[in-house]
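Please think about what follows:
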Amino acid sequence: MKKKLNTKDFNKFFHNKRVLITGHTGFKGIWLSIILQSFGAKVYGFSLKEPSRIDNLKLFNLDSKINTCYGDIVNKKPFFKYLNKVKPNILFHLAAQPLVKESYVNPYDTFKTNVLGMLNVLEYAKISETLKSIVLITSDKCYKNRELSSGYSENNELGGDDPYSASKAAAEILFSSYNKSFFKKKNIGIATARAGNVIGGGDWCKDRIIPDTIRSIIDKKTLIIRSPNAVRPWQHVLEPLSGYIKLSYYLYNSKNQKFNGSWNFGPNLEKKVTVLNLIRLMIKNLDIKKNITIQRNDKIKETLILRLNCSKAKKQLNWKRLWNTSLSIQKTSEWYKTFLEKKSVLEITKNQIKDYFKGGI
C-alpha cells in the first residue's frame, strides 16, 4: 500500500510542471485547475467555448490566470498545434459530452466527442516526447448495467444501453487497445479513471439534479425530477479529483507502468441516498421552501442502482473517501449559498480545497 501524500509532497511534485487539462472550464475541470495551481503547477487548458453555460473562468476570476485555448478536441490539427506549443508533462483529459439525456438527442455528436476526442489524446501520447503521465476520465456508466448492489470493479464487463454509456465504454476499449499496442514499450504512465454522480459547486450542466435545483430557485420555478428513487454514488467533486491527482503522481514516477490501466473512484457503500433524498437535504441546507414535482420520463432508461467497487484504488493507491454523503451535500450547499448571496465563490472553493487536503490524501 502506498503512503498518504500531503500538500508538501504535491507542492514538490507539481512545482513548475506543465499540466494540460482538456475541458478545464467545466465542473471538475475548474476545480482541478484551482487545485493544481495551488500546488505550483503551470496550468494550461483546452476547452470548447459554450456560450449557453456560465463562464466558470470569469466566475472564479481565473480568465487571466490560466493559459486557455478554445477549440473542439475532435479537430486534431488545432488541438495538436496547441499541445506542441505547451509541451505538457502531465495531461488530464476531461473534455466530453457528459449527459445521458443529451446523448439521446445528439447521439452522433456524443460518440464523436467522447470517442474521437479520446483517440486524439491517445494519438498525441504516441508521439509526445514530454508527456509522462496521462489520466483519461471516462465514467462509471461505462459498465454493462446489471444493477449490481455490490458495485462494479474494473474487470467487470463494459457496455451501455444509452448512447452516452456506450460512448464511454467505447472510449475505454479504445484506451485498452492503445495501451497494449503502443504504450507497453513507451516510457509513459497512462490510465483511465471512472467516477460518476459528482456533486459540488460550479456545476451548471442542464439535466443534472443539483444545477436544476439551483436554476429552479433562481428562476422561481417548480423543480421537476424524473427518477426520485434512483440510488447514486453521490460524492463531492474533491473525492475523485484527489484520486486523479494521486494517480497522476504514481503514473509519472512509476518505472514499470504498474499503474497503467483503469481505476474506479467512488464512495463507500453507505446508507442509500436517493435523488429525492439528495434534493430534500440540499433544500434544507439552503434554508428555503421549494415545490417539487415528480415527472417520470419512460423514454429515457435510467439505472436504478449504480455503485463502484474501489478496492483497487484503496489497496494500491491508499486512496479513500474523506467526506461522507452528508458532509458532501453540506459542502455543496454552502458553495451554492455563497453563489446565491453573490459572495466570492473562489474564496469558498479554496477554503474547501484547503480543508479537504489538510490531513493528506
Residues 107-127 form the longest helix (21 residues). The two ends are 13 Å apart (CA to CA). The mean pLDDT is 91. The CA atoms of residues 151 and 308 lie 4 Å apart.
